[in-house]
């Protein structure tokens, strides 16, 4: 990095960031804040130990198997520290990798690479972890019309990236934020007094372009939701047997109603849940219970 002020000023990172899967405007400030948090007033260790003029080549290497997601964010980290660093991709987004694979090669000033290392790995490990877990869920549903869907149970500030990683893994997204759609949950029902009243109020105030989804916990609420005209019904925390009965009941009343199963979803039971006939299985675990993929960066100083 030329100097610390160059990071704060958000140096323009050249045209290497055209055609990104996530618009750069949604994550560049996030990357800047992460670097500010990590570097503070400067990397004392690197400044003390590494010749400022030294050039190096470094590799991000997988220490376990996984699915690649977020390489463009890692590049953004390196680029914000030093826009003169160059990259060679080892794999494309969405590709599986195995232990020992090189995901990214970086060449340029050694001090810049070391300064960016931890933040780049932090982003990449987490996004790969979400994509890898989501792929496992999606594979369980192969051959089925049912979708695995991620929720808003994301890390504050990282939602756009975490929801992107879900898509890379083969999953789909629920609402991005509260303004994306109407989802009446148990507390909304309690505030309104009944399922019917909650749907009625939502119908009066909602734009005609929005569907109304409501969460139900039992058959009485399910019946009430169908009669009140809900477009989508979330069957919450039901057993597989209860789901089968609920799906049969709902399809008999309204064959084309969209049904979602939520609550208690695991890799062990997701296939069985999907087989009940629901259209969607939603799981917060995709973004709150994943395991980060173990990655490391190895650096070699280049000889003059």
Describe this structure in words.
With 304 residues, the chain is an alpha/beta fold. The protein folds into two domains: 4-132 and 291-301, Aldehyde Oxidoreductase, domain 3; 138-288, Alpha-Beta Barrel (TIM Barrel), CATH 3.20.20.70. Helix content is 41%, strand content 19%. The chain has twelve helices and 13 strands. The protein has helices spanning 4-8, 28-39, 44-49, 71-81, 110-140, 159-168, 186-192, 195-205, 219-228, 240-253, 270-274, 285-288; strands spanning 55-62, 66-67, 86-89, 96-97, 102-109, 147-150, 172-173, 182-184, 212-216, 232-236, 258-262, 280-282, 295-301. It has a seven-stranded parallel beta sheet with strand order 7-6-12-11-10-9-8. Strands 3-5-1-13 form a four-stranded antiparallel beta sheet, covered by helices on one side. The longest helix has 31 residues, at 110-140. The two termini are 20 Å apart. Residues 1-17 have low confidence and may be disordered.
The major pleated sheet works out as: 7 strands, parallel
State the CATH topology of the largest domain. Answer: TIM Barrel
Q: Report the span from N to C terminus.
A: 20 Å
In DSSP terms (H or I, runs of 4 or more residues), the helix count works out at 12
Portion of residues in helices? 40-55%
Number of strands: 13
Nearest-integer average pLDDT: 92
Q: Helix- and strand-based class?
A: alpha/beta
Radius of gyration: 24 Å
pLDDT < 50 runs, ≥5 residues: 1-17
What coarse outline follows from CA principal-axis ratios?
A: elongated
Strand proportion, as a percent range, falls in 15-25%
Succession of helices and strands:
HHHEEHEEEHEHEEHHEHEHEHEHE
CATH architecture of the largest domain: Alpha-Beta Barrel
- CATH evolutionary superfamily of the largest domain: Aldolase class I
Number of self-contained structural domains: 2
CATH class of the largest domain: Alpha Beta
| Oligomer kind | single chain
Strand order of the largest sheet: 7-6-12-11-10-9-8
């Amino acid at each position: 990095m030329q100097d610390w002020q160059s990071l704060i000023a958000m140096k323009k990172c050249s045209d290497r960031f055209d055609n990104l899967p996530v618009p750069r405007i949604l994550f560049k400030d996030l990357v800047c804040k992460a670097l500010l948090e990590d570097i503070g007033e400067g990397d004392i260790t690197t400044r003390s130990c590494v010749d400022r003029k030294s050039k190096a080549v470094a590799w991000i290497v997988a220490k376990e198997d996984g699915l690649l997601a977020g390489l463009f964010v890692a590049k953004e980290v390196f680029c914000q520290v030093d826009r003169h660093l160059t990259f060679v991709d080892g794999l494309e987004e969405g590709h599986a990798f195995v232990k020992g694979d090189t995901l990214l090669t970086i060449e340029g000033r050694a001090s810049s690479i070391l300064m960016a290392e931890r933040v780049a790995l932090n982003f990449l490990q987490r996004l790969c972890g979400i994509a890898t877990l989501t792929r496992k869920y999606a594979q369980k549903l192969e051959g089925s019309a049912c979708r695995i869907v991620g929720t808003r149970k994301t890390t504050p500030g990282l939602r756009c990236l975490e929801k992107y990683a879900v898509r890379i893994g083969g999953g789909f997204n629920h609402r991005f934020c509260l303004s994306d759609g109407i989802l009446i949950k148990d507390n909304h029902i309690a505030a309104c007094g009944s399922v019917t009243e909650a749907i009625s109020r939502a119908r009066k105030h909602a734009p005609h372009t929005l569907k109304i989804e409501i969460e139900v916990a039992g058959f009485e609420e399910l019946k009430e939701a169908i009669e009140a005209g809900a477009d989508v019904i979330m069957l919450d925390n039901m057993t597989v047997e209860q789901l089968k009965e609920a799906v049969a009941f709902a399809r008999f009343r309204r064959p084309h109603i969209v049904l979602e199963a939520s609550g208690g979803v695991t890799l062990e039971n997701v296939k069985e849940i999907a087989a009940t006939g629901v259209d969607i299985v939603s799981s917060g675990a995709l973004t709150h219970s994943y395991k980060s993929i173990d990655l490391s960066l190895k650096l070699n100083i280049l000889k003059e």
